[in-house]
């Protein structure tokens, strides 16, 4: 049974699962689907097009599935999909999609800290941490287990690899490949994310292989030649293949 505060507004067309807690002054619009065991503290707004899974917690002022801040948006029917067990803190805003992709996606197990923004058509993976006041522009992709510190600015259309850490206050208009620390001004490669990888259970041998792969790629002035050399060194490593494929598929170039 859901617990809906008498001062909350829930559109009769919204579909709610079971055991949700909806606090005072929350607003849930039409064309919203919410699963089970979610908790909305006071003053949370869930706009049309939201598709929310199970076990999420939304803190005061969060605004989910907002109208995209994109002048090309013409009111088309799009969605904002939120997975399971996310912690979405105070004043977080997440826009729904546009005709470009049709949906914004946030996976499961993420911590989205206070006042950060995810724009239209972004795809955020699982188990990511995104810091206070970080702003993510449209159509950005962030892979699993990324840590992005506070007040980071991410340009539209870029790709952020998994298991990375981005220093607070950075800004980038280029892709950030996986397993690394990115920082300084202007932003650049600052080494392999050793602590993060060890916490995630990567062996010392795998970490050294990742480190050697980046030495090989960044030592070569032409990335594709360094990628070919790295792949030839470690043809059976899924981590090295992830790195090499990331460099091969970049559209905006990778930081160096």
Output the keywords.
11-stranded mixed β-sheet; alpha/beta; single chain; 4 helices; 256 residues; 9-stranded parallel β-sheet; 28 strands
Tell me about this structure.
18% of the residues lie in helices and 27% in strands. It has an 11-stranded mixed β-sheet with strand order 1-4-7-10-13-16-19-22-25-27-28. The N and C termini lie far apart (53 Å). The radius of gyration is 20 Å and the shape is elongated. The chain is α/β, with parallel strands linked by helices. The chain contains 4 helices and 28 strands. The mean pLDDT is 97. It has helices spanning 194-199, 204-219, 223-233, 238-249; strands at 3-4, 9-10, 15-16, 21-22, 27-28, 33-34, 39-40, 45-46, 50-52, 57-58, 63-66, 79-82, 87-88, 93-95, 103-106, 111-112, 117-118, 123-124, 129-130, 135-136, 141-142, 147-148, 153-154, 159-160, 165-166, 171-172, 180-183, 188-192.
- Rg over CA atoms, rounded to whole Å, is 20 Å
* Proportion of residues in β-strands: 25-35%
Describe the global form. elongated
State the strand order across the main sheet. 1-4-7-10-13-16-19-22-25-27-28
Helix content: 10-25%
Counted by DSSP, the helix tally is: 4
Arithmetic mean pLDDT: 97
Structural class: alpha/beta
Number of strands: 28
Compute the separation of the termini in Å. Answer: 53 Å
Runs with pLDDT <50, length 5+? none
The major pleated sheet works out as: 11 strands, mixed
Question: What's the helix and strand layout?
Answer:
Layout: E1 3-4, E2 9-10, E3 15-16, E4 21-22, E5 27-28, E6 33-34, E7 39-40, E8 45-46, E9 50-52, E10 57-58, E11 63-66, E12 79-82, E13 87-88, E14 93-95, E15 103-106, E16 111-112, E17 117-118, E18 123-124, E19 129-130, E20 135-136, E21 141-142, E22 147-148, E23 153-154, E24 159-160, E25 165-166, E26 171-172, E27 180-183, E28 188-192, H1 194-199, H2 204-219, H3 223-233, H4 238-249
Parallel strand pairs: 1-4, 2-5, 3-6, 4-7, 5-8, 6-9, 7-10, 8-11, 9-12, 10-13, 11-14, 12-15, 13-16, 14-17, 15-18, 16-19, 17-20, 18-21, 19-22, 20-23, 21-24, 22-25, 23-26, 25-27
Antiparallel strand pairs: 27-28
Helix pairs in contact: 2-3, 3-4
């Amino acid at each position: 049974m859901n617990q809906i505060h008498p001062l909350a507004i829930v559109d009769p067309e919204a579909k709610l699962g079971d055991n949700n807690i909806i606090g005072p002054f929350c607003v849930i619009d039409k064309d919203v689907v919410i699963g089970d065991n979610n908790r909305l503290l006071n003053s949370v707004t869930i706009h049309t097009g939201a598709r929310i899974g199970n076990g999420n917690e939304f803190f005061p002022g969060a605004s989910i599935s907002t109208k995209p801040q994109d002048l090309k948006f013409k009111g088309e029917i799009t969605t904002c999909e939120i997975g399971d067990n996310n912690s979405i803190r105070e004043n977080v805003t997440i826009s729904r999609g546009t005709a470009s992709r049709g949906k914004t996606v946030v996976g499961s197990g993420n911590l989205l800290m206070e006042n950060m923004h995810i724009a239209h058509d972004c795809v955020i993976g699982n188990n990511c941490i995104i810091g206070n006041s970080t702003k993510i522009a449209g159509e950005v992709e962030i892979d699993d287990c990324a840590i992005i510190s506070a007040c980071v600015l991410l340009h539209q259309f870029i790709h952020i690899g998994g298991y990375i850490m981005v220093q607070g206050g950075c800004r980038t208009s280029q892709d950030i490949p996986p397993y690394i620390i990115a920082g300084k001004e202007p932003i650049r490669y600052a080494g392999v994310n050793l602590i993060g990888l060890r916490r995630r259970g990567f062996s010392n041998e795998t970490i050294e292989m990742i480190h050697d792969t980046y030495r090989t790629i960044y030592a070569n002035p032409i990335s594709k030649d360094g990628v070919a050399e790295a792949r030839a060194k470690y043809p059976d490593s899924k981590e090295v293949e992830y790195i090499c494929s990331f460099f091969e598929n970049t559209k905006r170039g990778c930081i160096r």
